């Protein structure tokens, strides 16, 4: 699922988020049992969860439990994909009552909160994940989508910069970060123009950025965040 974001004063474009369905392309919420298959998956890559020796024992425990919990992850992800946000949230809460630190289910719960319109709770959930598992890039990416939706491009940029530091190969975060930089550039050029800057120099740049950031009218409307 792709989340629509408005920037002011600037054209709209969508940040990609990881989403809960293996069939929904490019989004901040989703897929595969116990391992992120692609950037849009809701499943965290277990190999990235514990990058230090201090967490080796916890990694072993998580790997041992992964297959046992795969059905729970799949069930919650499928509920999210079907738009049954409340049921997904209830199932995630029930699971986390017994497995409170499980990063995968906590991530899915954050997605459920976001889809249910509980933005501040979703921010808290993703922030706590970044504190407990700072190696994971996906929670930072999801935070960035929320911040950008709120128009807070500086915080979105900071979150995405953290995501790509943690995983330099996380392509969706790089793309999102490029979009944020472009929006910030648009705003700066617009401010310069409003304060007496040179129209001959600024207008072509603004037009190029507007063309870059404005979604093509021919593209199909993406599924809205739920």
What structural keywords apply?
226 residues; mainly alpha; Serine Threonine Protein Phosphatase 5, Tetratricopeptide repeat; two-stranded antiparallel sheet; 9 helices; 2 strands; 59% helix; elongated; disordered N terminus; disordered C terminus; TPR_rpt; TPR-like_helical_dom_sf
CATH topology, which one?
Serine Threonine Protein Phosphatase 5, Tetratricopeptide repeat
Number of helices: 9
Largest sheet: 2 strands, antiparallel
Name the CATH homologous superfamily. Answer: Tetratricopeptide repeat domain
Oligomer: single chain
Helix-strand string: EEHHHHHHHHH
Fraction of residues in helix: 55-70%
Strand content: under 5%
Number of domains: 1
| Whole-angstrom Rg | 19 Å
- Walk across the major sheet and give the strand order: 1-2
Shape: elongated
Tally of extended strands? Answer: 2
Mean pLDDT value: 74
State the secondary-structure class: mainly alpha
CATH class: Mainly Alpha
* C-alpha termini separation: 9 Å
Reported CATH architecture: Alpha Horseshoe
Q: In terms of per-residue confidence, which ranges show pLDDT below 50 for 5 or more consecutive residues?
A: 1-12, 21-65, 216-226
